[in-house]
Amino acid sequence: MKLSRLIFACLILSALLSFDAFAQRFRADNEFIDYRLSSDRDKQTQKQKKLFENKLKDTGLQIASEGPIDPDIYVVGPGDIFTISFGIGSLEDQLYTAPVSVSGTLFIPTLGGIDVREKTLSETFSLIKAKSEQKYDLNKIELTAVLTQPRLIKVHVLGQVNTPGTYTGSAIDKVTSFVQQAEGFSDWAALDKIQIKHTDGKVDTIDLSAIYSEADLSQDIFLRGGDAIFVPPIATDGGTVSIEGNAEIQGMHEIVKNETVKSFLYRIRAIDRSTDLQGIYLQRNGDLTKLSFNASENNGSVSASTQLQAGDKLFLSYLKEYVYVHGAVRNPGYFPYFAGLKALDYAGLAGGTEEMGSLDRIQVLSAISGKKVKGAQTDIRRGDSIFVPFSYQTRLLKILEAAGYIASILIAAKAVGLINADTAK
């Protein structure tokens, strides 16, 4: 009797283990997997790339330009190189390369020296023409003067930048070019109060905030050798808010008086291409509210233009660059997101099986709304989950398989005498 009970116990244990494995598989195949809180996978999305440092070190390098130089704005200085040409009828043109000396003199071999200190490009061309008229009849000779190589300058970038220091660039580089070499602004940079300190003692104050919010480049000016860019810190009111969900910037941050959620997130550069703008939440006094960056949106969310208060918490999430496919497929798992693909396309990527049911019964769990939608032609968004159903025959076989496990247990129990006819009744 003891041996029979031992055999029965082993049968029971074996059946339970088999049934448990089957149940887990059946449950995994027929339920949606909520992976929307998988922060580890979210962190694998693309990061904002570091700004490229373009340091010109010799005049032999080509210089990138945004377009033609405005001759009324560009100020000539030591190191600029001009090409001067005198076209004399059928004779070979007289062509000269003329650099500006450290003393600010442009020397042209046939004309002599011209003082171009603090002169704009337009004024310099006028001086060259006036000097040429003293020697040549410009009605018979064609004069051409071109700035062929802008000079290199050194500029000091100080204050609220990530790597303060002295940087080399071209005279046609603007303020933002030198700030990029200094690895950009710090979180505390007051972009609307940037000072440009010139060697003659003059100070210009410019506002670069509109560049990043409105693409207004009017304040991004040319610089001169020896200029200092000073980026002052913003004035804070001492209040702090915390950020969670973004590993690079999570933690406590000071806020500016009357600062909105949107301006704060842009100031600390928490918003980039990988940020899910529909997945940002504000927690205040224990209440969690979704934030809206769309002024026309009316879905119960709070505008991102809401002013921050000390003690607020912000929860950020990344865009999910993948789609999850499971169910009656050969290769269940995560697949890269491609705009325009439908549920049927992803089912094909995962590979069909003989157990697959009607594709019209494919179900999609929306990562945005959390709702289920049926249909093979359903448009897929980032982070969606797709379940490919099993056929009715497959589901029936699984049920019968489970019933078989139960029946085997009952038969084994009866065989060893644990179940008799009276008990069964």
Structure description:
It is a single chain. The chain has 425 residues and is α+β, with helices and mostly antiparallel strands. The chain folds into 4 domains: 2-41 and 321-393, Outer membrane lipoprotein wza domain like (Outer membrane lipoprotein wza fold like), CATH 3.10.560; 81-149, wza like fold, CATH 3.30.1950; 153-231, Outer membrane lipoprotein wza fold like; 236-315, Outer membrane lipoprotein wza domain like (Outer membrane lipoprotein wza fold like, Roll). It is built from 9 helices and 21 strands. It has helices at 2-30, 39-42, 121-133, 175-181, 209-214, 261-267, 343-350, 392-415, 421-424; strands at 81-88, 94-99, 105-108, 112-115, 141-149, 152-159, 165-170, 194-197, 203-206, 228-231, 236-244, 251-256, 281-284, 287-292, 302-303, 313-315, 322-327, 333-336, 363-365, 372-374, 385-388. Helix 1 runs antiparallel to helix 8. The chain is elongated and about 130 Å long.
What does the secondary structure layout of this molecule look like, with pairings?
Elements: H1 2-30, H2 39-42, E1 81-88, E2 94-99, E3 105-108, E4 112-115, H3 121-133, E5 141-149, E6 152-159, E7 165-170, H4 175-181, E8 194-197, E9 203-206, H5 209-214, E10 228-231, E11 236-244, E12 251-256, H6 261-267, E13 281-284, E14 287-292, E15 302-303, E16 313-315, E17 322-327, E18 333-336, H7 343-350, E19 363-365, E20 372-374, E21 385-388, H8 392-415, H9 421-424
Parallel strand pairs: 6-10, 11-16, 14-15, 17-21
Antiparallel strand pairs: 1-2, 1-5, 3-4, 6-7, 8-9, 8-10, 11-12, 13-14, 13-16, 17-18, 19-20, 19-21
